[in-house]
TrEMBL record:
It comes from Petralouisia muris. This is ABC transporter permease.
Length: 302
């Protein structure tokens, strides 16, 4: 494409938006509303997912050994566990460490009672591994593998927690996909209507352009640009508003609701918007392109 043709196409696309101001503003407003809702939903979801991942990181599979297992056998089991892709971290807890932890919890305030066990550790056979996972949904396969290892007596896992967290993650995924699909359909429909009006208004001009030898691309390009510009403007504006809103909200919550800050830690604004901004802009431009492209194929016969 020549530079002059590019600038002509860009100007004509902008003129189309100006000529159909009311429809263009309606499309931009709808696009902005869609991206704004998408941004809010995305911000909420990524923060919830962060909380879920934090909870998942605290769920561990506990591996106990057969009575009389040597340290070499325990180390061998630990080495095999550490090779699994499901495992993010494994922590070895000796019998002595297990007894110390038990005392801190159950003999708190009555430490003298625990001194009678100084020479006889009641948890002598309780050495174990605490195994943490990359993804809680992998727990079942990991437990099955560990149970097959020599020297392993018992594997304790929280099936209820694993199933609950897995189902919650799946639910978030389904809801996200459904809402995004609805927003996309609404935005494409409105941009399509705007471009259709533009085609109707310029139908005679388009006919004259074809008579003097204009190519199909030259006729269609301004309408594609129109859709892309509407998508770009309609996505950039709400992203700017959302950025300021999110930044102020996390500061406000941190200052006014200290008890909530202790339970819920918001993701930093840069971490959220480093993904949200490019995704939002791509969505806006993509929706604008798709809406105008579909409309041209349907209504513009050149």
């Amino acid at each position: 494409m020549r530079i002059s043709t590019f600038w002509y196409t860009l100007r004509q696309g902008a003129k189309n938006i100006w000529k159909n101001k009311m429809f263009s503003l309606a499309s931009i407003a709808t696009m902005a509303a869609c991206i704004f809702l998408f941004g809010i939903f995305y911000s909420v979801v990524v923060n919830f997912q962060s909380v879920v991942r934090e909870v998942e990181s605290g769920v561990a599979v506990t591996v106990f050994f057969v009575d009389g297992a040597t340290q070499e056998q325990m180390d061998a089991v630990g080495e095999q566990i550490g090779k699994r892709v499901e495992v993010s971290e494994k922590v070895f807890v000796s019998a002595e460490a297990a007894w110390d932890n038990f005392q801190k919890i159950y003999f708190k305030g009555a430490e003298d009672m625990a001194e009678g066990f100084a020479e006889d550790n009641p948890l002598a056979n309780s050495a174990h591994y605490e195994v943490y996972m990359n993804d809680i949904s992998m727990q079942e396969s990991l437990v099955t593998y560990i149970q097959s290892l020599d020297g392993v007596k018992e594997v304790k896992s929280s099936d209820l927690a694993a199933h609950t967290l897995t189902d919650f993650n799946r639910l978030i995924g389904y809801v996200s996909a459904g809402i995004i699909l609805i927003l996309l359909c609404v935005a494409v429909f409105l941009i399509s209507n705007t471009v259709t009006i533009g085609i109707a208004v310029r139908r005679e001009e388009i006919a004259i352009m074809k008579l003097i030898g204009s190519t199909d691309y030259f006729v269609r390009a301004p309408f594609i640009v129109e859709g892309i510009l509407i998508g770009l403007i309609g996505s950039a504006l709400p992203l700017l508003v959302l950025y300021q809103m999110y930044r102020k909200i996390i500061v406000y919550v941190g200052e006014k609701f200290l008890w909530l800050s202790g339970m819920l830690e918001f993701l930093p604004v840069n971490k959220v918007f480093s993904t949200l901004v490019p995704v939002g802009l791509i969505l806006g431009v993509g929706i604008g392109f798709l809406g105008s492209r579909l409309t041209i194929r349907k209504h513009l016969k050149v």
